Amino acid sequence: MAPYLPLLLLPLLLFLRLSNLVRGTTDSSDVSALNVMYSSLSSPSKLTGWSSGGGDPCGNDWKGIKCSGSSVTEIKLSGLGLTGTMGYQLASLTSVTYFDLSKNNLNGDIPYQLPPNVTYINLAGNGLTGGIPYSISQMSDLKYLNLANNQLSGQLTDMFGKLPSLSLLDLSFNRFSGSLPQSFGSLTHLKTLNLENNQFSGSLDVLSTLSLEDLNIQNNKFTGWIPNKLKSIHNLKVGGNSWSSRPAPPGMAKAADNNDTSSSAVEKGKQNSGLKGSSHHIDEQLSQNRSFTPLGGNDFTGTKDSSSSIDIKTLETSPMELKPPPADNKKVNNDNEFANKHTSRHSTDSISLTTYSSADLQAATGSFSSSRLLGQGNIGCVYKAKFNDGKALAVKKIETLNLSGSHSSDFMEVVSGISKLHHSNVAELLGYCSESGYQLLVYELQQNGSLHGFLHLSDDYSKPLTWDTRVRIALGTARAVEYLHEVCTPSVIHKNIKSSNILLDAELNPRLADCGLGVFFEDTSENLGPGYNPPECTKPSAYAMKSDIYSFGVVMLELLTGRKPFDSSNPRIEQSLVRWAAPQLHDIDALAQMVDPALRGLYPPKSLSRFADVIALCIQSEPEFRPAMSEVVQSLVRCVQRTSINKRLGGDLSTSRRSDDSDYGYY
């Protein structure tokens, strides 16, 4: 019987093969539509298996295509760097229910016709222009529509009345304007609505009947009052709008009937929102955080007191505005206050930064050439960018691997947060690029590089940092950290304080870099590298505010000794800077031996001793015993003042020791 077994199986194998061929033959209308799409996408190489003419998408495993029988049902082409447009035959794809071309570089208008029976559309993170095609209004089964992070514009038409199944609508980070359409009120199953960072105006009346769970309308031009029903939404973000500064009338549900649209009221609303809602954008005068010069006797007056003065809005409020609010909102005087209390620090103001294209930044950096590399860190590299107008900037290229689980909207939230950091000792963000495969931050280029370069890579004797300059660098950096910890609300933990992140401008004033990027260190095994990590930080989640204090203390040790935080070339007992230096910081004789030889003995001993005392407090192993940064600032101010007094009086410098920078011919 065995010899005949192959002959018996042969018909069965032929039947199975023929049935697979029949089952794999794709509907001609689907093939034609995908052929047109492929041609419109400029024949991208990443679309393996695709063809501009004919082919069998269901039978031959076309990239991103899924089928049921002979019909194409899913198109998933997210994050492939695709360019061009989507083609004009998408309406032929009648069986497609899932359509995802997000995080590419698509341009032009969204095609007027899309797959008509789709339930999921994601075109976020492209360069699409124009408006929302009206054909979407006929997609009665549509549940998910994400058009965020494009360049869409214009007013929304009344096209949402026949979308009862829609549960998520994301139009954020576009250029839409005008009032919300009345047909929004028909979206009875809508749970998530993201409209942030557009130019929408008018009232929120139409949303008051919806049962939303997530609502983000930040950074638009909405006016009037927030309907009471919306205030009960758990995940609500409403800051950065021109809400009325007056309490809403009792039982307020129709803001449009009572909009306070006078120019004075709108302006006051803007002032209130900007003053208390934009928690990063706090004027430096309020925190007394000034640059190095001049340093007077009352240079530091206490950040905590000054930051508490931010709530001066209540002093300006008229008696009418102090009347009790509606019964269901007893603790909030007006919708500006409500917005401030229910808005994260990252998105309270619109992003007023330059948007760069990846093509422009590639050209400016020589395609991120190694010859333009300025530095390399845990989350990416920094390159020098040279533009045609002669301007030079620094571009930080964040590796997409460090955005695991994140989307472009998360990156934009980080950008929004950094854009609100304004302090003379914080590196200022000038622009950004958010395109598929590219998350880039653009900063001002600091002429003197980093403190790490000055201390560890340059010729110390031909290009020394004097004692006075070192103390001032420490003070400026401390002020930057004080601003993050004690002025910003809520506080910002840096998580990456080290000498390579302290940049020096033309006058050697420090600029603390990587502020606001702490979110990218959540999943890294080690934030800072050898020598900087506090003893309590065995994992990223353990990193807290006092951990920043420790890392700053290590930087101060670098300034004092000229040594690296960890140096394997040293004898074993001296490899870890903290372990070697900590026991000697209160020993005057040992301290004199620890000082950076590049100083050539030119420093005030009492200033050195005070400096060492501050270090000893900062690098304590128990976090609770480390000082707050405002205390560190006060101590360093006294160090600078003592140096200034010594220079004026010529006293206590031991023999011929002087700390005047001009003695070195540095300036």
What does this entry show, briefly?
By secondary structure, the protein is of the alpha/beta class. It folds into 3 domains: 23-346, Alpha-Beta Horseshoe (Leucine-rich repeat, LRR (right-handed beta-alpha superhelix)); 354-444, Phosphorylase Kinase, domain 1; 456-664, Orthogonal Bundle (Transferase(Phosphotransferase), domain 1). The protein contains 16 helices and 25 strands.
Could you explain the architecture of this structure?
Helix 3 packs parallel to helix 7 and helix 12 packs antiparallel against helix 15 (605-618). The chain is 27% helix and 15% strand. It has 667 residues and is of the alpha/beta class. A hairpin with a 5-residue loop joins strand 24 and strand 25 (510-512). The radius of gyration is 31 Å and the shape is elongated. The chain contains 16 helices and 25 strands. It has three domains: 23-346, Ribonuclease Inhibitor (Leucine-rich repeat, LRR (right-handed beta-alpha superhelix), Alpha-Beta Horseshoe), CATH 3.80.10; 354-444, Phosphorylase Kinase, domain 1 (2-Layer Sandwich), CATH 3.30.200; 456-664, Transferase(Phosphotransferase), domain 1 (Orthogonal Bundle). Residues 16-23, 253-276, 278-332, 343-349 and 649-667 have low confidence and may be disordered. It has a nine-stranded mixed β-sheet with strand order 1-2-4-6-8-10-12-14-16, with no helix packed on it.
